[in-house]
Specification:
The complex is a heterodimer. Chain A is of the alpha/beta class. Among the domains of chain A are: about 220 residues, no CATH class; about 240 residues. In chain A, the strands form three sheets. Chain A has a seven-stranded mixed beta sheet with strand order 2-1-5-4-3-7-9. By secondary structure, chain B is mostly beta strands. Chain B has a four-stranded antiparallel beta sheet. In chain B, strands 2-3-4-5 form a four-stranded antiparallel beta sheet, with no helix packed on it. Chain B has a four-stranded antiparallel beta sheet with strand order 6-7-8-9, with no helix packed on it. Chain B is globular and about 65 Å long. The termini of chain B are far apart. The relative contact order of chain B is 0.12. Classes of the chains: A alpha/beta, B mainly beta. Chains A and B meet through helix 30, helix 31, helix 36 and strand 15 of A and helix 1, strand 1 and helix 6 of B. Strand 15 of chain A pairs antiparallel with strand 1 of chain B, so a sheet runs across the interface. Chain A: Keywords: Autophagy, Cytoplasm, Guanine-nucleotide releasing factor. Chain A: One of its GO terms (biological process) is autophagy.
């Protein structure tokens, strides 16, 4: 954790478990009247307190061809959640903004119906009447019985906090895309099954008809045909046509994944666990009916149980026919998978946006600390792929990337040519556009997407409030280009193109006249690469345009993550000077000392700056390395830090104009990665969360109860095994849990904590475990246990839980004092856990610096003596890192772990080694 | 400590309470070993450690398996399987061929009456001899003659290719317990109470013909000879079970000096009753001998004694250096002495010269053994006499290594690389200098960084 958001308002549903520390209730006369809107779960921080639902939820709706828009289900499936919220009305609202360029049926000039594989569209929609804001994700599923074979659906994340939707757009998009991909995969499978059945029916019907015709022919040897016979023949012909049509459809649906896979960026839905893959990864599974080989002849043998039915020539055009449910449409397995995913989304985005942002920022930053994060971080927590925040919400990167693009393109005009093959689907949406949406409007919208919360609030004041009063709603739409099954037309790519950003931009921002009181900002993009909006929008082309497939043709491959980071750091020095915030973004990667900057004023963890969207820097070790110059020139953590924090804010204000340029790029980039990100295994972090909370709570209790908590924690941090000795298993385990948050991990996968041991300890145990709960027994065996403890006492600190004593070395440093202040005002376990993580992260950074500073460990010149290196090392620890007394040992131990971790060859376990000091121990009593 | 753990005065008569063993406490500033590696592999008592070269060593024990280890990294190099019973002797043997290429071999003897030669470079068995009538109990390599000897119930001489060159007649059922090489192609073999000198000679008619002749039998020891060590070209020393130490001339095999009662409890009547209770041959047995040019260091019972060859007397001792028998001692180049014991600990001692302050009573070291009692006056006189003409030495405990949970059988000093100890708890522990290891790791780290290109080394 990078920051300890102590003052962040939590709306997270956290039961107040700490009865111990709960304040006694105030007398009635002193108590502040409750927040007027306080209902269940309401809080004064809720942006729109008047909303009709108590918390965020997910709504799935369908535009039924029979009854129109209708809500299907909500997650959580609890009537209380949606409250009095009008689901039907809202379904209508969200289904009315579907910009999917869905076109299915008989295209002109084509003999057979054509399936279009439509990309999902993502829209943000606000409704002031309901006090609801929603991220809406539209998708279409195939249904043989439906009109045009398609059934439009949408999933919406509905929240009262507009801010949240805006801030989390990218994350929501990513997560919902996974859910959508899952649904669609299941749907393709089910659709193919359905087609096969239908084909069999048709085949059977044909046989029957054929036989009848033959019989008639035989029975009738006259030279002319009866009307009956002609009818039969016609019927037969239509059945045959139908067979061909259906075969074609089947071929199309089957070839879909294959074709998409050629698109290197397409990632089919893959179930989380490998076990399931065999039967679920339907795209590749021969047992599943949609095979990936387009040329493969369909074999029906693997659906043996189906008996074909006779199909009547004229199917009843009935409106009372029952449409398939969502579950039927997409295979039960996939349906439940999707529900799981949606539940996961609901859990993930529960809570205040501040909390989410902080979490995401810290997670993203932690990911960067790839060298040190194994020490204290929950590995599963880090393995979990964090939402991709890289592409938006960062002025520095965005602007820079744009700059980068422009310069690149001006340098290499060839590149632009391939842009011709991009098109936007906006122009094809049959909506009357008015080109009156000016630049002045658009940047504001974009600002809300990408600038920091502070800006947003200003903006909210200025615009949203107004629009709320006028009953307007705001929509931000991100549509993906729809890709069809046509082959790529090469001619498009060779269109001569002249970049004209101005024209392009005005097209992008446009007002729609469908609903007169709503403002919508459309942003569209070809999903494949990061092309500035300006270029794309100005070259409309046919809807059935093949997606951008071949990078090489254009001669340019956009690698969004690498480019900006590398270039702005190394080459474009001049650019850096002009764009201060770029510099700031770089600081994260280039000059890690920033983060070490121990601001004295931050002692109490007061966060004065609201969380800002994560600024990406180049990932990996290179980015994370301290530069030698920076270090030898002395660390300037305070200066850098303040510049980083204040500078970025100012710049974000000053560069609004430039931002406006990048806006559309931003959002387009956003949708770019949405569908393209692989769907990773999403580990539920709920259990870990609970564990952390409990551990934090216990730790808090421990530091309050035991005056000698400091030396105990010091023991753990310096790698000296701490044994918690006691008769009561529950009590010992509780203590071990409490203390476990202070234990540095030795390797990435084993937390060196053993909760309960009943046998005598051995030296090997101290190598393996750094925190051990040990049973004290009165039996002879128990005496042996104690003898072993006594024997190995030099390697151990012993906390006697029964007599409340501690035997361990002296601690006179300051780090642990800050870490475990028994007078701390922190009351919640999870908050304290974060506080601990924040201090520990600071320690980690120090250890990192110490470990990777070359001249601290090796002589600068060959003639330099070992002593001077040692003294330089100690000076660095004391003066530069500001460590006192035993704190040095903590950092040295962490540094040793870092070294071991870094040196260790992957795959090789490495011998666990035990380091120790010959230092005297003292006995502490309460 | 233990009392605190157990709580109150319920403590049984524990070791800590009664033992007169010198303890050092937890603060050991002179102890360099602040890091350890536990090497696991053996399934039974590990009894032998032999150094192969600068960084490799082999371990062997009762499980019949020999392991080759890297002393720097603790990496297990090879596992040598071949013996079916416990290993009774092991010796390194570096043979140089005609091609001048040095190959490191290990010869191991086992209770299954076989001797196997192993190649350390690839961990393969080179050759196996199984024509023994009894267990080979000791192996000695005569590097100079390029032959090796095996001692069991008889003494056999082998060449590098494992051809039996010659052998003695059947000597004893008990077998030879120790062998040592003497000048002029002679070998001293300890057989029971006797010390037999053999001479190895190449016969006249060819290079392949060797013969071994018994030259002399020395019967000065009253009890079985338990240790035999060669000090230099002129001297060798033997020690017996009842605590006799005899210094021999290596050329004419005459007794130069002998000590037999310097650990005798009768000299110290004040402690006698206590010792008598627990007295056993073990208490005074000379377990192990080692030497440098001037002194012989003897592990006798629980104590360590330093015998000066020139002065022909014990110059320093720790009567109870350990809680139980000392099994192995070794002298380090830096005046330090390491001992290991059945009590599972390893202790580091330093031989220090005591500043003579005649007025001061004698507090520690050698003179500790004179307590308060009837012989006090006499002893003081004796001590005074010593003061007059010789410097006084004492053994100071500078550190102890506690890690094994059972008897430490042997250890191997690797200089900078550290110390390897093996024990009855099936483990081998590598003790290392933490500071040095830490800086080595830094070095490795920066090398790796430079390799992966993450760092431009700007020196």
């Amino acid at each position: 954790m990078i920051s300890a958001p102590d003052v962040v308002a939590f709306t997270r549903e956290e039961e107040l478990e700490d009865d111990l520390y709960r304040e006694p209730p105030l007398p009635e006369e002193y108590s502040v009247p409750l927040f007027p809107f306080a209902g269940q779960g309401a809080n004064p921080w809720a942006k729109v307190a008047g909303s009709k639902f108590t918390r965020d939820f997910i709504l799935i709706s369908e535009f039924s061809e029979q009854v129109g828009p209708q809500p299907l289900l909500t997650i959580p499936d609890d009537a209380k959640v949606s409250g009095t919220f009008d689901l039907n009305y809202f379904s209508l609202r969200i289904m009315s903004v579907d910009y999917q360029a869905s076109f299915v049926g008989h295209p002109p000039g084509s003999a057979y119906p054509k399936l279009n594989f439509v990309e999902d569209s993502k829209v943000v929609l606000g409704d002031s009447k309901e006090g609801a804001f929603a991220y809406v994700h539209h998708l279409t599923l195939y249904d043989l019985e439906a009109r045009g074979f398609v059934r439009p659906f949408c999933m919406a994340y509905i929240s009262a906090d507009e801010h949240k939707i805006m801030q989390q757009f990218q994350e929501l998009s990513t997560e919902f895309s996974k859910a959508s991909e899952c649904l669609k995969t299941g749907n393709r499978k089910a659709f193919a099954n359905e087609l096969e059945k239908k084909l069999k029916d048709l085949d059977y019907t044909r046989t029957v008809l054929h036989n009848e015709t033959e019989q008639q022919k035989k029975a009738n040897d006259k030279g002319y045909y009866t009307t009956q016979a002609i009818e039969k023949a016609n019927e037969l012909a239509s059945v045959e046509k139908s067979i061909i049509e259906h075969q074609d459809l089947l071929r199309q649906i089957r070839s879909y994944p294959y074709r998409k896979l050629k698109d290197s960026e397409f990632h089919p839905y893959e179930p989380e666990c490998a076990l399931d893959r065999a039967d679920v990864g339907s795209d590749h599974d021969p047992a599943a009916s949609d095979s990936t080989e387009p040329g493969e002849t369909p074999l029906y043998t693997h659906v043996p149980s189906y008996t074909p039915k006779l199909i009547k020539a004229k199917s009843a055009k009935c409106f009372d026919k029952k449409l398939k449910t969502l579950e039927e449409l997409c295979d039960v397995y996939f349906f439940t998978q999707t529900l799981d995913q949606l539940h996961h989304i609901e859990r993930t985005f529960r809570g205040d946006v501040c909390y989410l942002l902080t979490e995401q920022i810290s997670r993203a930053l932690l990911k960067q600390q790839s060298v040190t994060n194994f020490l204290f971080e929950d590995v599963s927590f880090l393995d979990e792929k964090p939402p991709e925040k890289q592409y938006r919400g960062c002025q520095g990167l965005g602007q820079d990337a744009i700059d980068e693009k422009c310069s690149e393109e001006s340098l290499a005009p060839k590149v632009v040519i391939s842009l011709g093959s991009y098109k936007s689907s906006v122009e094809c949406v049959p909506i009357k556009m008015e080109q009156e949406m000016e630049d002045s409007e658009e940047p504001k919208m974009s600002e809300s997407v990408m600038s920091e919360p502070q800006e947003n609030l200003d903006y909210l004041d200025a615009d949203i409030k107004g629009s709320i009063s006028s009953g307007e709603s705001i929509e931000v739409l991100g549509t993906e280009k729809s890709g069809s099954g046509l082959t790529k037309s090469e001619s498009q790519a060779s269109l001569p193109v002249m970049p004209s950003p101005q024209a392009g931009r005005s097209k992008v921002g446009s007002r729609r006249t469908v609903s007169e009181d709503s403002i919508e900002v459309l942003s569209t993009c070809p999903s494949e690469s990061l092309i500035p909006e300006d270029f794309k929008a100005s070259y409309p082309s046919a809807i059935n345009e093949e997606p951008y497939v071949d990078d090489d043709e254009g001669g340019l491959r956009f690698t969004p993550r690498a480019n900006p980071g590398v270039d702005d750091g190394q080459d474009d020095v001049s650019k850096q000077e002009s764009l201060v915030q770029v510099d700031a973004a770089c600081c994260i990667g280039k000059e890690s000392p920033n983060f070490l900057g121990q601001k004295p004023c931050e002692e109490d963890g007061v966060v004065r700056i609201p969380p800002q969207p994560y600024r990406p820097a180049e990932q990996g070790l290179r980015g994370g390395f301290p530069s030698h110059d920076g270090l030898s020139g002395g660390l300037l953590p305070y200066e850098l830090d303040s510049r980083y924090l204040s500078g970025s804010r100012e710049v974000s204000k000053s560069s609004l104009d430039e931002c406006s340029d990048s806006t559309s790029y931003m959002s387009s980039a956003a949708s770019t990665c949405s569908d393209r990100t692989p769907s990773p295994a999403h580990l539920g972090s709920a259990a870990g969360e609970r564990h952390r909370k409990r551990a934090g709570q216990n730790a808090l209790r421990f530091i309050r109860q035991y005056p000698f908590a400091h030396p105990a924690i010091y023991s753990l941090l310096s790698g000296r095994t701490l044994v918690v000795l006691g008769e009561d298993e529950a009590m010992v385990k509780k203590l071990v849990t409490a203390l476990s948050i202070f234990v540095p991990n030795c390797s990435a996968y084993a937390k060196p904590v053993k909760h309960w041991v009943t046998s005598a300890l051995h030296l090997v145990d101290f190598q393996k475990w750094k925190l051990i709960g040990l049973q004290r027994a009165v039996s002879p065996a128990g005496v042996n246990v104690l003898h072993a403890l006594s024997r190995y006492s030099r390697y151990l600190s012993i906390l006697d839980a029964d007599s409340k004593t501690l035997r361990c070395p002296l601690y006179k440093g300051t780090v642990v004092t800050r870490l475990a202040d028994h007078r701390t005002q922190i009351k919640r376990g999870s908050t304290y856990y974060m506080h601990v993580q924040s201090v520990l992260t600071q320690l980690c950074s120090k250890a990192f610096l110490f470990t990777f500073c070359h001249h601290l460990h090796l002589p600068i010149s060959e003639r330099e003596s070992e002593e001077s290196v040692v003294s330089r090392r100690m000076n660095f620890l004391k003066l530069q890192l500001g460590l006192v007394n035993e704190d040095i040992k903590i950092v040295q131990y962490l540094a040793e772990l870092l070294k071991l971790h870094y040196i260790q060859e992957p795959g090789q376990g490495g011998n666990p080694l035990l380091r120790f000091d010959y230092v005297p121990s003292f006995l502490y009593k309460i | 400590m233990l009392r605190w753990l157990i709580g109150g005065g319920r403590e049984p008569q524990g070791l800590a309470e009664k033992s007169s063993v010198q303890t050092i406490g937890e603060e050991q500033t002179q102890n360099p070993y602040t890091e350890l590696l536990v090497l696991k592999g053996h399934q039974d008592i590990v009894r032998f450690l032999v150094q192969i070269d600068d960084y490799r060593f082999a371990s062997a024990g009762d499980d019949g398996i020999i392991f080759l280890w890297n002393a720097q990294t603790g990496e297990k190099l090879y596992e040598l399987h071949g013996h079916t019973h416990k290993i009774t002797a092991i010796a390194p043997f570096s043979s140089s061929d005609v091609t001048e290429e040095k190959t490191d071999l290990i010869i191991s003897a086992s209770a299954d009456r076989t001797v196997i030669v192993w190649d350390c470079a690839n961990g393969r068995q080179v050759q196996k001899v199984s024509c023994f009538h009894s267990t080979v109990k000791c192996l000695t390599v005569l590097q100079r003659l390029n032959v090796w000897l095996s001692g069991g119930s008889d003494l056999c001489v082998w060449n590098q290719k494992l051809d039996l060159l010659c052998k003695t007649s059947h000597l004893t059922d008990a077998g030879i317990s120790a062998l040592v090489e003497l000048p002029k192609n002679c070998i001293a073999a300890a057989v029971g109470k006797e010390l037999i000198i053999f001479r190895l000679s190449a016969s006249n008619n060819g290079s392949e013909g060797w013969s071994i002749l018994e030259v002399k039998r020395l019967v000065d020891h009253q009890d079985n000879i338990s240790s035999l060590v060669s000090v230099n070209d002129l001297t060798f020393v033997t020690g017996s079970h009842i605590g006799e130490l005899i210094v021999w001339d290596a050329l004419d095999w005459t007794k130069q000096a002998s000590e037999c009662n310097f650990w005798d409890s009768s000299v110290h009547p004040d402690v006698q009753p206590e010792i008598k209770l627990s007295q056993s041959p073990h208490e005074t047995s000379v377990q192990h001998l080692t030497s440098d040019e001037q002194c012989v260091f003897a592990a006798v019972g629980k104590g360590i004694y330093v015998y000066n060859l020139q002065m022909k007397r014990v110059i320093a001792c720790q009567r109870t250096a350990h809680d139980s028998s000392v099994l192995h001692i070794e002298k380090l180049p830096n005046r330090q002495l390491i001992s290991c014991s059945e009590d599972g600990s390893v202790r580091i001692w330093e031989l220090r010269e005591k500043q003579q302050l005649p007025a001061e009573p004698v507090p520690t070291g050698f003179f500790n053994m004179w307590g308060f009692g009837r012989a006090n006056k006499q002893a003081n006189q004796a001590a005074k006499k010593m003061h007059e003409n010789t410097p006084v030495y004492f053994l100071e405990l500078v550190g102890d290594l506690i890690g094994h949970s059972s008897a430490v059988q042997m250890f191997l000093y690797f200089g900078e690389l550290g110390l390897a100890t093996c024990s009855a708890d099936h483990l081998i522990i590598l003790w290392k200098d933490g500071e040095r290891e830490s800086s080595l790791r830094s070095l490795t780290l920066f090398k790796k960084l430079a390799q992966s290109g993450d760092l431009q080394l700007r020196l």
